[in-house]
UniProtKB/TrEMBL annotation:
<dbReference type="Pfam" id="PF13561">
    <property type="entry name" value="adh_short_C2"/>
</dbReference>
<protein>
    <recommendedName>
        <fullName>3-oxoacyl-ACP reductase</fullName>
    </recommendedName>
</protein>
<dbReference type="GO" id="GO:0016616">
    <property type="term" value="F:oxidoreductase activity, acting on the CH-OH group of donors, NAD or NADP as acceptor"/>
</dbReference>
<dbReference type="InterPro" id="IPR036291">
    <property type="entry name" value="NAD(P)-bd_dom_sf"/>
</dbReference>
<dbReference type="InterPro" id="IPR002347">
    <property type="entry name" value="SDR_fam"/>
</dbReference>
<comment type="similarity">
    <text>Belongs to the short-chain dehydrogenases/reductases (SDR) family.</text>
</comment>
Amino acid sequence: MKSFIDLSGKYFLVVGASSGIGKGIVQGLAELGANVHALSRRGSADELSNLPSVMQVSLDATDPTAIGNFIKGVEIPYSGFIYSAGMRGKSPINTITNKQVNEVFDTNLMGFLNFIKEMIRNKKIDTGSSIVAISSVSAHIGIEGLVPYSASKAAISSSVRVLGRELSKRQIRINAISPAMVRTPIFLDSEQEWLNEVEKGYPLGLGEVDDVAAACAFFMSDQSKYITGTDLLMTGGCPWHS
C-alpha cells in the first residue's frame, strides 16, 4: 500500500487558521504536500510564514461581501475546505442578549455556510472534494453557561447532515469533527494545573492539536471518499462526553 494519505498537488482553504486547531490543520496539510490558503481575521501566524505552500490572507468570516469577493478571485478550484473559525460566547441564560447570540452564530455557523454557498455558486470547489467543519462536543452534551456556543455548534452538526445529502449530487463530501477538550495556546500558564486535573477524567488524556489535524487530513484525503454527513466525536474516552 502506498502512503496512506498523500495530498500532493491539492489546494485547500482553511478558515480560522492563525492559531490553535486551525493553525495545526494548515501545518498538517502542508506537511502532506498540499497548497493551502490560510484565512483568519489576524491574517498571519509566524509559524505559517515559513511554509512556502501556505498563503495567509486576512478576512473577516462574518462579512458575506468579503467572502464573496475572495472566492470570486480564486483562480484554482479547491480540493477541500476546512472551517475552524469559532467564537465561544460563554454566558448564563440570565445574561444572554440578542447581539451576543447573533455574533456567535455569525462566526460559528453563517461564515461556514456563506463560504460553501460562494464556492458552489462560483464553481470554486472541485467535484470529488471534501468539506469539514470543526464543531465541538458541546453540540452533543450540556455544558453550563454555553447556550449560544453549544447551539451554534449543534447547528453546524445538523447542517452537515443535511448538506451531506444535498452536496452528494455534486460528488462533494461534508463532515464535522467534534473534539472534546484539546490543549491549545488559548489556555494560560496559570490554567495548566486546572487542565491537568481535568485530564484525569480522560482515559486517553486530553486531545492535542495534531489529533484533530490528523482526523481532518483523513477527511480531506481520498481514503474517506465513502464518508459524508457524519460528525466525528473525539472524546478521549471520557464517559460524560460519550
